[in-house]
């Protein structure tokens, strides 16, 4: 798949980024309401509507909206995927053999907010702030899966390579990982501000409030989401926060958001191997511009090109020469020549592919991983809350496990794909993402866990049914003695057929009470009576041992 890296010429100046697109994809787990086993099946219906509608509005996309907005790039995106993936992503439209309104929905709903126009960031303290254009901010909901994906795309032009590397490394972090001795956040942006169309600040990051983050973890045993990201998601709120909200979420993966990037460079061949590793593994800039310093040891990176690079177009020929894809699972980065019209084309070229079919490939892979982790979390929580001494708690546990099993079956048949496309490039990129994310291994592990839990419930149900059958059998056997004795040849011990009605009712009540008491008592002792019947039927036991087994029926102590 990949070739050895092309060494840059020493005469080439440091590369310059003419245009950059960065796409963040943040998977989150939606939490259930009350004692429900899972989140609502259609969680987007809980978003505010009408006069109280918030910033999120359902996106009427090119497939369901104005036909004039459907362009060739959307057509190319659609035909890239296999039919079952097309039905998941876009639904199933009308056909002559079906009613005119007989179209099935896609497997997801997309909501967009349009009030965020710019993002002003400062990568490091004292650095010059950069203002990025916000292309779109979307929420992806999915049917029958308690997962939501936040998608943010920003773009910028005329950047130094180091500035682009800093943005790729620092922008997509849900909260600071720590602070240095001066109290400055590590690895994340020094500051971030969302701006509206008038340039007014709508929300700013709070990464410098170290004590707030520390106190939140100490109190809730859960990280505190940075304010500028919490603002984007509202009215969705963190499950551990005190904010009111019907839609609550929890972090499901690492705090670094999966990321895609498109870099149009003036001279891609000027990138050093250190630059390639930094972009492919998103490690941030290393050393001085043009440095050969690697972020990790050479023996750790000896297979970097074969493992992380898709080099089918990494050459001087073709419509988009010197184009390379770098995929680590967590990231998918494409670099190429800015002066190549095909590389920069928004309708038919690499940029169009990056923002459409390649984005969908990345989304599917991370949606699958997030869903599998969500199912695993649900099993862990159900077990953690189990109290076998509480019958109602046991019933809730069974409902939670059955709900997880049913949800996993729907996920497997609707959303789990080993292949998404037959096109060589799309197939290769999806396989790289899936293998780096270890999706097949994770799927097998979660499937085994859910199958084990389901098998446990079935075994427990069979055991309970067997115990019930034993008890009924014991009651029947001992009741049979009295039934045959009193009913022999239709014999009545008391000839009260002509007695007054009140007397007959009295006898009836007394006999019913005695029979009921005897039946209940037999049920209470049914386990020990069953043991006695087993002993009685065992021809190898002596009469004395059988008598002892009979006496054990009334012995005090646990069964």
From TrEMBL:
Keywords: Membrane, Transmembrane, Transmembrane helix. Its main location: membrane. It is a multi-pass membrane protein. This is CorA-like Mg2+ transporter protein. InterPro entries: CorA_TM1_TM2. It is found in: Membrane. It comes from Roseateles albus. The chain crosses the membrane at residues 469-493, 505-524.
